[in-house]
């Protein structure tokens, strides 16, 4: 007798299921009812098994019915009907078991997987693979049913893990097909369960870890939960650790890790993560090429292209090398991939965003055209409900906007909503084609925003872009003061985004800033209560933006990344303060609060990390120690490991528990959580919070007036802090846009005046321009401020001039306010009326004043006459000789002794430091200034190196070098220059320069300065540093009144 076909018993089960379905419909019961239906199911199945047989037509109909109702099979305990569905879908039994490296085998717990279990999982895997090939959801339904059935049999651990793994991957696939959030959540849950089932050393573990990581990364795309990303990276790293160099799965896992790192780097602004992503994906590409795996190599090439693009975007550099390479890699991936491949659309999309970035950098029409074409192909190949369609719609909208910009003759993107300065002049008559492109951009942005659900990681980005193109449309095509019908809706949307705690902080800041600008536009074009209400709303939005700003530059990021992020919001606090002085009843206190909160963010973080914890330590010593340990760990160099040799995190300290967490992000989150916990304790609600304006005013009062000179596209003012009060003085002759040009002219004329290669006549002409600009600075800024403070002339004979502090903002930071004046008019200069000092914020000034004055003093002298690769400084030796004649030098480092490590090691041992060498100012927003010591070609002494120090005994630093008070223009409000770094490290007084100074003049000013602060042949009180420099500079001015470039660069920074 012949053996029955493996499927012979299954077809009656199909018929039984259909009969049960008809019975359920007659009863009107909902699909997927409870266990009370199971007896009827068993009865009908048994009846059909021993009753008649359906014909072929019935079989086909029943197959279709079963495919439409697969989920109900999971509710029954009868495997016969279930197996009937599988047989109908899959044909003959599958005689293999395949879940990659996660295949079960003989159990380590004493049992073995049954043949039926192996067969069932093999069938389910085959059905899942068939779904991947056909996109027919019926195959996915059936695979899930069979995996669920296997789990109901209470299998051995390996089979249970394999079934959970398979079910998790099915749910993952279902999410990618239909974008239902619950599916990816369940996928993560099932994959976590699978990993928990088998012991840690089991051979299935690496594959299970890799699958869980992949699902976590997918969920992060939609939910942007940082813990998902961190957990996924940890899991894929563990999987990679268990993967051999010849393992076929190596390329796939390297790809997974590289993609995840690029996501982390992009989301958090972390360049170190992006660097590792590029390295990892480069390794994946090489491995794929070496193994001849065309598909894996193509995936690695496309992923590497995206990582290179993201890294370039974070660095904001002008070098196109990364982007050119990225475009080549993206094209390589597409050339190796047929349009029928599911990844083809993704590769097209990656190419489109790379080309968009390349176009924004080099403005070549071919890049834009190719990018637009790739974007259209990507969209056409992406199903309506595909999770990646949202992002691709957003890219298409941005490219359409760029097409408009090019057709309208705009050579850069006009974000009128993000700036309070007038947009570039647009052509009087835009062509019909240009207007059509702008309208198309609006429609595309609306489609992208409408397709993005709240909570999706692209939600805020797509809404922000929609606002920008709508505002551009209103400005470009509308009547001044009139906006589109959707204007109010857009502003409401921005206001909602600004308070959405689920959105990335940087996007919340953008939304709040855009909302403020939009409200101001309404206020300026309205009257009466409508204008007042819009002004109040604008100020509230600015307040939120400045409150959020410090969070964008969290200490979890490397310092260079924090600088880049802050540079993108340059001017925010200044615009906010200007708004506070122009809406309602001008509020100088609110303006001061906004400036203090939105400027000097990095120095504020340093103060938070180093502030006096005496009160906390007295009440809660363990919490104080814990907080200090975390701050010190975060202060470590970004390339230093956080893990100690014993596996804990550095900074635990003697007697303290090791700090939990493995990276800067985890550690920063723990520190912030601890600070919040402290604020909930009685008496500590203000722990490390910025002081209120009235507190700042009272604290600053005894020492002398402070003038914060604010420059904005809304207008310029001086906020004056004197005698415990705050008030403002308008500066109507200071216009932001004009000041930018004046700053460039000033810097160029200073350079030309000191360029000995130029003819003397040209040097003299440049010097006259410098004198003229200092005259304008006096009339427009310094004189109105001094007059308002009651300082209307030089002090009476025999009385010393009073002290005051300047806090210039924005482009004004490049000017020597202390040297403003009219050289031929007695008393008409700052130098004649006050002793000037500078600060970044009032809070930082008070912090410097509060530092304890040391008892025993010692002087470190660093002098470098000859450093490799830079011009000689012949007067440095003379400068050092004169210094030694006036003061005792405890330690001198010169020549080859003056190296990076030696100087950093010596600084904590001394209270005073004199450093004479070359210096350079930062070329980019992410860079810092550098002192060029003997080993500068290998390791220059950077602002980051200096600022990281905690010098408890530091008092005075004299920086006899060029450009030590000059920072990058985009970070003028952060004072990220060399002098600022020494101040942050702990020096209460710093002497620095705004531009390169003649070597001989520098030596003379230094000698005169030390003559003023020396007390006999001992180190005197450094509190006289500002006056000593004031007198030294006045003496040089007396000799060269019309040559300010020789003496005006020197200034006093600090207390």
Task: Spell out the blueprint of helices and strands.
Elements: H1 11-27, H2 38-50, H3 56-68, H4 79-90, H5 115-134, H6 137-152, H7 157-178, H8 181-197, H9 205-223, H10 226-241, H11 250-268, H12 271-290, H13 294-315, H14 321-335, H15 344-362, H16 365-380, H17 389-407, H18 432-450, H19 459-477, H20 487-498, H21 505-524, H22 528-552, H23 559-567, H24 572-580, H25 588-598, H26 601-610, H27 614-619, H28 621-634, H29 664-679, H30 693-700, E1 706-710, E2 717-722, E3 725-730, H31 736-753, H32 760-788, E4 803-808, H33 830-833, E5 835-838, H34 842-850, E6 859-863, H35 876-886, E7 891-894, H36 900-906, E8 912-916, E9 918-920, E10 930-932, E11 941-942, H37 943-947, E12 956-960, H38 978-985, E13 989-993, H39 999-1013, E14 1014-1015, E15 1018-1019, H40 1025-1039, E16 1050-1054
Parallel strand pairs: 1-4, 4-5, 6-7, 6-8, 8-12, 12-13
Antiparallel strand pairs: 1-2, 2-3, 9-10, 10-11, 13-16, 14-15
């Amino acid at each position: 007798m012949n053996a029955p076909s493996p499927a012979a018993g299954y077809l009656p089960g199909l018929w039984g299921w259909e009969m049960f379905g008809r019975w359920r419909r007659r009863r009107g019961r909902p699909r997927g009812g409870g266990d009370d239906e199971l007896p009827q199911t068993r009865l009908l199945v048994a009846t059909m098994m021993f009753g008649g047989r359906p014909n072929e037509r019935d079989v086909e109909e029943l197959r279709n019915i079963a495919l439409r109702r697969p989920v109900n099979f999971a509710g029954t305990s009868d495997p016969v009907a279930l197996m009937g569905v599988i047989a109908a879908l899959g044909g003959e039994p599958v005689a293999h078991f395949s879940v990659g490296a996660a295949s079960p085998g003989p159990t380590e717990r004493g049992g073995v997987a049954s043949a039926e279990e192996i067969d069932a999982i093999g069938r389910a895997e085959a059905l899942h693979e068939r779904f991947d090939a056909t996109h027919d959801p019926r195959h996915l339904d059936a695979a899930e049913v069979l995996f669920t059935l296997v789990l109901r049999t209470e299998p051995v651990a390996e089979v249970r893990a394999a079934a959970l793994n398979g079910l998790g991957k099915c749910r993952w696939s279902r999410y990618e097909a239909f974008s239902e959030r619950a599916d990816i959540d369940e996928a993560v849950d099932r994959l976590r369960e699978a990993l928990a089932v088998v012991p840690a050393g089991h051979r299935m573990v690496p594959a299970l870890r890799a699958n869980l990581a992949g699902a976590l990364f997918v969920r992060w795309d939609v939910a942007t939960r940082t813990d998902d990303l961190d957990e996924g990276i940890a899991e894929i790293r563990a999987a990679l650790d268990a993967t051999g160099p010849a393992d076929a799965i190596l390329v796939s896992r390297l790809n997974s890790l590289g993609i995840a790192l690029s996501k982390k780097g992009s989301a958090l602004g972390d360049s170190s993560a992006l660097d590792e992503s590029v390295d990892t994906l480069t390794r994946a590409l090489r491995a794929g090429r070496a193994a001849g795996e065309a598909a894996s190599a193509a995936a690695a090439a496309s992923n590497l292209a995206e990582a290179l693009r993201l890294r370039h975007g974070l660095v904001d550099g002008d070098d196109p090398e990364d982007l050119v390479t990225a475009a080549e890699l993206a094209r390589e991936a597409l050339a190796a991939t047929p349009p029928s491949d599911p990844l083809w659309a993704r590769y097209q999309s990656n190419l489109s965003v790379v080309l968009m970035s390349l176009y924004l950098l080099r403005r070549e029409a071919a890049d834009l055209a190719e990018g637009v074409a790739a974007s259209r192909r990507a969209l056409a190949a992406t199903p309506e409900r595909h999770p990646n369609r949202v992002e691709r719609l957003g890219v298409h909208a941005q490219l359409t906007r760029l097409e408009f910009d090019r057709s309208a003759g705009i050579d850069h993107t006009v974000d009128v909503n993000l700036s309070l300065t007038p947009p570039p002049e647009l052509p009087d008559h835009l062509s019909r084609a240009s207007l059509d492109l702008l309208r198309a951009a609006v429609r595309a942005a609306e489609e992208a925003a409408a397709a993005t659900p709240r909570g999706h990681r692209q939600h805020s980005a797509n809404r922000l872009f929609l606002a920008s193109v709508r505002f551009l449309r209103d400005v470009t095509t509308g009547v001044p003061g009139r906006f589109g019908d959707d204007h109010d809706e857009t502003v409401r949307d921005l206001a909602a985004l600004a308070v959405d705690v689920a959105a990335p902080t940087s996007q919340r800041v953008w939304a709040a800033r855009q909302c403020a600008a939009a409200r101001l536009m309404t206020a300026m074009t309205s009257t009466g209560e409508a204008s007042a209400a819009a002004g109040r709303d604008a100020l509230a939005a600015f307040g939120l933006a400045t409150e959020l700003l410090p969070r964008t530059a969290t200490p979890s990021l490397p310092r260079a990344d924090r600088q880049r992020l802050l540079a993108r919001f340059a001017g925010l606090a200044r615009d906010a303060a200007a708004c506070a002085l122009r809406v309602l009843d001008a509020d100088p206190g609110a303006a001061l609060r906004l400036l203090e909160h939105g400027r000097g963010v990095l120095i504020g973080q340093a103060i938070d990390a180093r502030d006096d914890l005496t009160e906390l330590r007295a009440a809660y010593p363990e919490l104080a120690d814990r907080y200090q340990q975390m701050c010190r760990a975060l202060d470590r160099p970004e390339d230093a490991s956080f893990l100690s040799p014993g596996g804990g995190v550095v900074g635990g300290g003697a007697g303290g528990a090791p700090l939990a967490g493995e990276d800067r992000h985890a550690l920063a989150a723990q520190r912030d959580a601890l600070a919040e916990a402290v604020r909930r304790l009685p008496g500590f609600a203000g722990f490390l919070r910025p002081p209120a304006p009235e507190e700042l005013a009272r604290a600053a009062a005894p020492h002398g007036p402070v003038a914060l000179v604010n420059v904005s596209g809304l207008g310029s003012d001086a906020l004056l802090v004197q005698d415990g009060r705050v008030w403002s003085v308008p500066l109507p002759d200071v216009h932001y846009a004009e000041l930018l040009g004046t700053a460039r002219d000033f810097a160029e004329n200073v350079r030309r005046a000191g360029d000995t290669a130029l003819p003397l006549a040209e040097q003299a002409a440049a010097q006259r321009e410098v004198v003229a600009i200092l005259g304008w600075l006096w009339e427009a800024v310094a004189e109105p401020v001094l007059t308002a403070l009651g300082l209307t002339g030089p002090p009476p004979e025999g009385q010393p001039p009073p002290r005051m502090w300047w806090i210039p903002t924005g482009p004004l930071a490049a000017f020597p306010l202390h040297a403003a004046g009219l050289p031929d008019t007695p008393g008409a200069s700052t130098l004649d009326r006050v002793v000037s000092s500078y600060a970044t914020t009032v809070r930082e000034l008070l912090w410097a004043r509060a530092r304890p004055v040391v008892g025993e003093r010692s002087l470190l002298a660093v002098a470098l006459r000859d450093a490799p690769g830079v011009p000689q400084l012949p007067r440095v030796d003379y400068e050092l000789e004169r210094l030694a004649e006036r003061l005792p030098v405890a330690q001198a480092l010169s020549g080859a002794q003056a190296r990076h490590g030696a100087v950093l090691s010596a600084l904590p041992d001394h209270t005073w430091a004199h450093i004479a060498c070359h210096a350079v100012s930062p070329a980019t927003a992410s860079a810092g200034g550098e002192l060029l010591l003997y080993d500068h070609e290998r390791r220059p002494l950077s602002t980051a190196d200096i600022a990281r120090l905690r010098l408890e005994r530091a008092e005075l630093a004299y920086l006899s070098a060029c450009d030590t008070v000059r920072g990058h223009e985009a970070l003028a409000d952060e004072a990220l220059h060399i002098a600022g770094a020494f101040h942050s490290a702990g020096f209460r007084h710093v002497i620095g320069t705004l531009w390169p100074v003649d070597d001989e003049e520098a030596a003379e000013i230094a000698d005169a300065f030390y003559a003023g602060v020396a007390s006999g042949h001992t180190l005197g009180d450094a509190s006289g540093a500002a006056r000593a420099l004031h007198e030294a500079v006045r003496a040089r001015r007396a000799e060269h009144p019309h040559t300010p470039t020789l003496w005006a660069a020197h200034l006093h920074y600090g207390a």
